[in-house]
Amino acid sequence: MPRRLHFSPKLVEKRGQLQLVCRCLSILIQQRIRRRKEKRAACWNLNRRCFFELKKARRLVISGRNSMENNTQKRTSSRRQTPPHLPAAPVAENENSATAESKAATVQNEPLLNRDSATALYVQIADLLRADIDAGTFATDSKLPGENELTRRFSVSRVTVRQAIAQLLTEGYVVSKQGKGTFVSRQKFLHDLKPMRGFYDALVAQGVEPKTKLLGFGPASPPEPVKEAFGSRDGDCFQLKRLYLVDDEPIALVVSYLPPEASGLTWEQVNRNPIYVLLESLLNMPVAKAEIRIRARTAGTSVGQVLGLPSRAALLVMERESFGSNGTLREHTTFYIRPENYEFTLSVQGPLPVGSSIKNISGTSSLDRAK
User: Fold this and answer.
1) Among residues 50, 246, 257, 350, which one has the fewest Cβ atoms lying within 10 Å of its Cβ?
2) Keywords for this entry (predicted)?
C-alpha cells in the first residue's frame, strides 16, 4: 500500500495563505491588462474620429471650391450672353485694373521658351526680360517680378531664374538691392573715346543734364609720377574733387591735378566750369592731345562712401593725361565710374593689316602644318 503523507496543521494553513495571495495577484494583473486594453481602444477610437473629421472637412473644402468655381463660370457666361439691347452693367475701377493686369499677364506669357533649342533656358529667359526692358514694359527703377512669379511664368526652377537674373546683373540691365529685390537700372551712358572731349560734355551730348558737386579744391601733393610730369618739386600742384550726379544719383567721382598756375583760380570759377574750359579759357593752356587708360578695381572705403557703394563693389577707373602742343602735361585726372551706368565705345576704321597666323601650343602655326 502506498504511503500516505501527513502534513501538519501549520503547513496546511501556510498553503492556504499562499493560494490566496496568488489569487489576489492574478486578479490585480488581469485588472491592469484590462485597463491597458481600454486605454488603447480609447486612443484608437479617438484617432479614428479625428481621421474621419479631417476627411469630412477636406470634402467640405473641395466642395466649396468647386461651388465657387461653378459660380464664377456662371457669372462669366451670363455676362458674355448679355443681350445687345440691354445696357452694359457699370464695371468698378478695381475690376478694370484686374482685367488690365490679366491682359498684361497674358501678354507676358505669350513668348514661350523653346525647350528643344540648344540655347540654355536661362539665356532665353534673360533675352525675354531684356526685350521687355527695352520695350518699356519695365520702366527705369521699377521692380522686376520675384523669383516665384518668374518661376510660374516660365515653368522653370528657381535656379534657372536666378541664373537669368545673374546674367542681367552682369550686363548692367538690372540692379540688386539687398532686402528689396531686383530693379531695372538707369539709362546707360556711352562715352565715345574717339573725339577729345570732357566727361561733362560726353554726358551732355547724350541729352543728359548732369549735376556736379565740388567736393574740394586746393593745393595738394600728387603722386610722384604726376609731380615729376608737372615739373613741380615742392608739391604745389592743385587738386580738384568733383562728384557727377544724374537724377540725383552719383555716377562718377573725379579727382584732377592741375599745374601750379591754377593757384589763381577761384572756387566759383572751378565750380562752374569743366576742366578743359578752365585750362583753355581761364589759364590759357590749350590741350593738343590726351592719353586715356581704362582699368577695373574695387571701390574701397573712401570712394565707396562718396558713390554710395560697398567697399568691395567693382568700378571702372579711367585715367586721363592731357598735353599741350609742346608735350607739357596740362592735367592728370582719374575718373571713378559706376560700371552699371556707363560704357566706353571706340570705332576703328579699316582696312586692317593682316597679322601673322595663330600658333598653337606646340609652337607651329596652322600654315606650317598645311605645308
Assistant:
1) 350
2) DNA-binding, Transcription, Transcription regulation
Contact 270, 214 (CB under 8 A): yes
Question: How many whole angstroms separate alpha carbon 166 and alpha carbon 175?
Answer: 10
Rounded Cα–Cα distance for residues 302 and 299 (Å): 8
pLDDT tens digits, 117-150 = 888 899 999 999 888 887 888 887 788 888 889 9
Query: What digits encode the pLDDT tens for the residues 231-277?
Result: 765 657 889 999 988 878 888 899 999 988 888 889 999 988 888 88
Architecture of domain 103-184: Orthogonal Bundle (1.10)
CATH superfamily for domain 189-345: Chorismate lyase-like (3.40.1410.10)
Q: What is the 3-state secondary structure (H, E, C) of the chain?
A: CCCCCCCCHHHHHHHHHHHHHHHHHHHHHHHHHHHHHHHHHHHHHHHHHHHHHHHHHHHHHHHHHHHHHHHHHHHHHHHHCCCCCCCCCCCCHHHHHHHHHHHHHHHHHCCCCCCCCCCCHHHHHHHHHHHHHHHCCCCCCCECCCHHHHHHHHCCCHHHHHHHHHHHHHHCCEEEECCCEEEECCCCEEEECCCCCCHHHHHHCCCCCCEEEEEEEEEECCCHHHHHHHCCCCCCEEEEEEEEEECCEEEEEEEEEECHHHHHCCHHHHHHCCHHHHHHHHCCCCCCEEEEEEEEEECHHHHHHHHCCCCCCEEEEEEEEEECCCCCEEEEEEEEECHHHEEEECCCCCCCCCCCCCECCCCCEHHHHHC
d(CA 297, CA 340): 14
pLDDT of residue 224: 82
Instruction: List the end-to-end C-alpha distance of the chain, in Å, as a whole number.
Output: 131
